Predict the 3D structure of the following.
Amino acid sequence: MAASGTLLRSTMKRLLRPFYLTVHPDITSTNMPSEAASVNAKALQAVNAYVEALASTPSHPVVARTVTFFKPRGKEAAARSVAKNGRRLRPVMQCSFELSSIPPGADFSTREGLAARLVRDIEAALVAEASSMFSSKPHKGTQVESLMKSGSIPGSKAGDPWKKLWDDETQERMFKMSLYDAETEEERRSRVYKEELFNRYLYRVARKAVKTKNEKRKMERLMDAERVAMEMVDEKLRKQAPQEAGYQAAQNSDDEEQETPTEFIQRKARVVEGGYHPDLVFYSPQLANQAKRQEGISRICGLELEDDGDMWLLENVWRAVRAPPTPLPLVIGTKFEALHDRGYFEIPYNFELKDLVDFLEEHMDALKESRAKLIEELYVV
């Protein structure tokens, strides 16, 4: 397993070399504004910490976050470089990408899929052209993707009400679409499985393509990586179809015990509307029993509470725990434990509200302080 992690680390650093060359302060600080160089240094640290987390098996949850960096504009913009303090500073453009959450104890295949997703998102950010909502030459959808992810609007300034309105509208629509999307349980599982297969195959194809010595052929293979990965996914699913048909027949007898699509959507909505965000909830690797995991989620949602006062108290507890600027990750496990050195806490799947309140009253402030320090030092990403 250690050898696999070492290989994953070295492969990711090789695939991310264009990003390192773009943001490394030793390379770009001489011709880039100091503010942009400072942001790039933090982005470099964040990516390095994330790569290390993927290369190992993290015992703590890694919460999703957005990383922003600056890259020089194209050759035309370089001709308009500005002289400042005796240096020629190139115009830069802001880019961003997502670092996905990593559950505690994630297995190698999960971390491999997350690595492929990171490489793909960073490559898309690097090739994206200057943001333009009405570009006459769209760059294969990368501009739209970058616009939706970063929420940036051309020509907008910090505090611009139009930019804030755009951010709020797009984020709320995307969130509600994902939250209330009425897909069946089978469709949801199939989609998640297909996405994981695609990320895994994309990583393998990109890893082989980057070894190509001919630069032109290498670029062609990288540009074609998504199509090849999707063909591999389709072939994999075609081979599994006969097996799944027999498996589905065996599962029909257990349908009454399965959670219905409506119940799943309502449960997921209850977590959010109750004040806690699903991205901050993780399972302990030691809690493998699905019934216990479902009970933990049900208790977080307050589904077993009958008194409105108890429900109000639970919702306000979760709002306090997730309150900015330092929301705390929560791990559903088997015991109450405050892990100050990792900046998160664990609760038993069958917790009682009174015990939860007493535990958080004692540990929450200290946990938030320790997590803020860890984030600042990039031990936790």
Observations:
- Residues 288 and 333 are 9 Å apart (CA to CA).
